[in-house]
Amino acid sequence: MELSTEQFAALDRSITPIRMSTYVSAASGDVSLARDLYLWDRGISVGFLADLAIIEVALRNAMNAQLEAKWGAEWYANLSVPLDDRSAAALNTAWGRIAGPKTPGKLVAQCMFGFWRGLLDKGDHAGKPPRRTRCDYEVLWRGVLDKAFPGGRVQAKLDGHRWNREYALAVVSRINDLRNRVAHHEPLVNGFPLSGQKMRLSAEEAFDDFLRLAAMLDRDLHSLLIATSQVPMHLRNRPR
Length: 240
Known about the structure:
two-stranded antiparallel sheet, 12 helices, mainly alpha, two-stranded antiparallel ribbon
């Protein structure tokens, strides 16, 4: 990327040496290439955020629709829905963020990606001793949230996996990790670590997960991402 001397200087003033060292290392010490990689990283992060604006909303709406179908529009207030303390706390926080009338639609919009990802986990405990109980999220999954992923079984088979809650959780968790990465302006140039695992995911693998989740939710959404995402262009144009 061609920048003027003044623009190079502005970038160097804006970015701390510690932060830039990640890119200098990726560029094997080539400072000019490091600057290009930094700007490339910004571009691909923006591309991922644009895709997240679609996939995150699609995920929460699909999951909410199935919860509504089973327990009604105010499923979150239904005591027969097994929500552990973590999920209940996230709901309470979302409830507190609502401005004006507190409607189901507003609550759903305020629930963060991590909340929906958490509903695909195995569930934890709710309450305090002596009335502390274990919440089994298979109750949420079987015949309810599994229906939010009509293409899940086919996609899991393509990946050589069984279609179950654990498979859906793994895909959504990886995208949640990427979301947190780009939302906090963390580098993607060397990939990113997966929470609770001793492994990293590359930007290419992350985009594969975007397409994977889109196919699980809606095959036409999968087609839309392929047609409109800017991420593949950035992957092809990574500075060398």
